[in-house]
Amino acid sequence: MTYSLPYIFILTVFAVLAVIYAQRQENKEDTLLCSYITGAAIAVFYVFFAFRGYVYSDWVGYSETFQNVEWEDIFDITNKKKQAIIHEPGFTALMCICSLFTREYAFLVIVITTIDTLLFLRFLRRWNVKNVSFAFMLFFTFGGVSLMFNALRNQLAIFIFLNALEYIVKKNPVKYFTLCFAALCFHASAILFFPLYFVLARKLNKWVFLGLILAFFAFYISQISIVMTFVKLLGLEGALGEKAEFYTEYYNSARALSPTGTLEKLGFTTLIFLYYEKLTSDKTNIILINSLVLCLFFYYMFGEFRMLSSRLSLLFQFSYWILWIRLMDALFIQNNKRLFGGILYLYCLYVTTFAYVIPIQEYDNLLFGAKSQTERMEIFNKSFEDEQ
């Protein structure tokens, strides 16, 4: 509970700003105040993420890489010592540019967060999201914190991709694929974005949408292995099949079934199903709904591999950040909107309260006094010792 207090505070700040903005917008007054509210939300967002201390775990590898990066590394796609590790040239080039000023890891974080914030705000503006505070609250709850803290390369690729989505609507493949290629320069997972130009804008039948989500969930709780399913379908039993089975059993994790998380996902799906025709009258919402389908596909179908499932579903987590807002906009009665917003905040509060329970998640900020890198490394090492 103690570790979650700073996160609860920031979440609540976004929620309060979102309520004030909604009230002023509802009464169509104080346009200048609405601008100030948005500015305040952006400032809180930026300070929280850009000046964070050595939080979570991936900073250990990134800080070491940044300390040792050289310009010739741009042409080394794989690590000389660990061939399985990919070094994307775009991210390596960005580190090299930052290293011209300092080798301090905090500076790299500030630069990346600045880029992310600008790209995120552009995306929200292009997708007509006026209540930025509300979007930040949802981002904070649904994958945003882990994305910003623990996936420097991935976050850049995702935010670039978000700005490519508008070119699906505008039917401009050159700009779309150019941005996808830019995203690929920062993270290899962006390869999945390329074929989406041809499918994300295609409207699914509402019953097909519901059926797909339920099928993914049924597969998840069935405990069937997706790897072994493909092995059997392709007739690859024998030595290859035995090896696949060994690694599947070795690397997979027990598929936990969270009652709250399951209720949230199925409830979210049901609400979209009920408002499906209204939502899909806007082509941008079709893209968001299809992205949600992909998010839940990777989350449920690859559930036996916790890390893989988490990282792949994170690519499409952005659908949560906007679709909840679209659902609220679909409500006619203001009291229903207020009730919906209140319940959503309470759920976000619940998720945030129980999401931060380990020492490496302890938040501190460089502007207000943060633990040194040495102190955080001790916490990091101790946390992993405790896990073992």
Count of DSSP E strands? 0
Binned, the helix content reads 55-70%
The helix-strand sequence is HHHHHHHHHHHHHHHHHHH
> What's the alpha carbon Rg, rounded to whole Å?
22 Å
The general outline is globular
**pLDDT below 50 for ≥5 consecutive residues: which ranges?**
238-252
Euclidean distance between termini CA atoms: 22 Å
- Which structural class matches the secondary elements? mainly alpha
What is the number of independent domains? 2
What is the count of DSSP helices, taking H or I runs of 4+ residues? 19
* Oligomer category: single chain
Mean pLDDT: 87
Q: Approximately what portion of the residues adopt beta-strand conformation?
A: under 5%
Largest sheet: none
Brief write-up:
This protein is an all-alpha fold.
Molecular structure report:
Helices cover 69% and strands 0% of the residues. The protein is an all-alpha fold. The radius of gyration is 22 Å and the shape is globular. The relative contact order is 0.13.
List the helices and strands and how they pair.
Elements (H helix, E strand, L loop, with lengths): L4 H22 L4 H20 L8 H10 L20 H11 L5 H22 L5 H19 L1 H13 L1 H4 L3 H12 L21 H17 L3 H8 L5 H13 L7 H16 L1 H4 L3 H19 L4 H9 L3 H13 L3 H22 L17 H15 L1
Helix pairs in contact: 1-2, 1-6, 1-18, 2-5, 2-6, 5-7, 6-17, 6-18, 7-9, 10-13, 10-15, 11-12, 15-16, 15-17
For this entry, give a set of tags:
388 residues; mainly alpha; 2 domains; globular
